[in-house]
Design a protein that fits this description.
Layout (H helix, E strand, L loop, with lengths): L1 H12 L3 H5 L2 H39 L6 H46 L4 H16 L9
Helix pairs in contact: 3-4, 3-5, 4-5
Length: 143
């Protein structure tokens, strides 16, 4: 029983400097942006799944069959167009996520300067907090 009490005491002793020094509203902005960015990783996986499904459909219904030249060209153009749209969607989603990550990094660097906290501490503590709340890989701040 003492071991349980000790572990409870140890968890209470862990304090984040970023939570103590930074007002909640200032910390909530990068947390929200990080959450939106982490959620976008799921949306990037969906187009790749669609490409796999299209490949499977092509192999089941079209591969190995003979078509006249005009029909073959139409099928090829439709498939290339669908894959092109999916790839474009991936680039758009990635661009939005990179923009949000950039904003998160700027906000965290500003927090480090304004509240006189080391950048490494802000990075480690914010990453731990954000990964716990939203998942993802955390944030890496460069000096």
């Amino acid at each position: 029983m003492d071991h349980i009490n000790n572990s409870e005491e140890n968890t209470e002793e862990i304090k984040f400097e970023i939570i103590e020094k930074v007002p909640k509203d200032k910390l909530q902005i990068p947390l929200d942006l990080y959450g939106e960015s982490a959620a976008m990783e799921t949306y990037v996986r969906i187009p790749f799944l669609l490409i796999g499904v299209l490949f499977l459909i092509h192999n089941i219904f079209l591969a190995g069959r003979s078509f006249d030249y005009e029909t073959y060209e139409n099928i090829k153009n439709i498939e290339i167009s669908i894959v092109g749209i999916i790839v474009l969607a991936v680039f758009i989603i990635a661009g939005i996520a990179m923009s949000k990550n950039s904003t998160v990094k700027k906000e965290l660097k500003e927090i480090a300067k304004r509240y006189n906290i080391k950048t490494e501490v802000v990075q480690e503590e914010f990453s731990a907090l954000a990964v716990h709340m939203y998942g993802g890989r955390g944030v890496v701040l460069k000096k």
